[in-house]
Amino acid sequence: MDIDLLAVGRLKAGPERALCDRYLERARRSGSRLGFRAFSVSEIAESRAARGADRIADEAERLNGLAGKGGKIIGLHAEGELLTSEKLARTLSRDAEAGQPRTTFVIGGPDGLGEGILANADFVLSFGRMTWPHQLVRVLLAEQLYRAMTILSGHPYHRA
Fold first, then answer.
1. 89 to 35, 49, 78: CA distances (angstroms)
2. pLDDT tops 70 at residue 160
3. What count of other Cβ atoms lies within 10 Å of the Cβ of residue 100?
4. Mean pLDDT over residues 72-82, rounded?
5. Helix/strand/coil for 28
6. CA distances from 1 to 31, 84, 104 (A)
7. Closest Cα partner for 6 from 118, 103, 150, 116?
8. pLDDT band at 107 (very low <50, low <70, confident <90, very high)
9. What's the rounded Cα separation, in Å, for the pair 155 and 160?
10. Which of 26, 29, 148, 156 could form a Cys-Cys staple with 89, CB 3.0–4.6 A?
């Protein structure tokens, strides 16, 4: 199964990008032995619309166009479902074993994800009820994907 991170905005060079890249590379190495073929990132530019609602709608339309290439869509949103790391790992493993070709995690921009993408999502995931900068959400997701791979492989990284 392929894992895609689809995000609004560019993650510029710096500590956040380095950390995200490091976790995704670790996930690639661990996941390849478990049947996870790829961990990729796709970015779209933030909308330049003047109103927040218009920015969200524009971004949702573009995200739907990219996320709709087959497989499962997981939107990240503060009002989504809270999962443990173990449950996320089991979900990814179950989907891979069922022959799911791809899971795409969708991260909104500064204004969040619009209803247009949330309505098309197979699942909406939350990293808590607090608002997180979208750049940090990408790092958190990359770490959780690496953690999921270590859980599935029995690696001691996950000690909970």
1. 13, 37, 20
2. no
3. 16
4. 95
5. helix
6. 10, 21, 11
7. 103
8. very high
9. 12
10. 148
Q: Which domains does the chain have, with CATH numbers?
A: 22-153 (3.40.1280.10)
Residue 12: partners with Cβ closer than 8 Å, 6 or more residues away = none
Task: Provide CB contacts within 8 A for 146, sequence distance 6+.
Answer: 23, 24, 26, 27, 30, 157
CB atoms within 10 A of CB 85: 15
Distance CA 27, CA 80 (A): 24
Q: With the C-alpha atoms ordered 59, 123, 4, 24, is the resulting torsion angle positive or negative? A: positive
Give the rounded percent of residues in the chain with a pLDDT score beyond 70: 99
Q: What's the pLDDT band for 147 if we cut at 50, 70, 90?
A: very high
Residues 10-59: tens digit of each pLDDT: 989 999 999 999 999 999 999 999 999 999 999 999 999 999 999 999 99
Query: DSSP H helical segments within the chain, as ranges?
Result: 15-32, 52-67, 85-97, 115-118, 134-153
Backbone angles phi, psi at 71, to 5 degrees: 100, -170
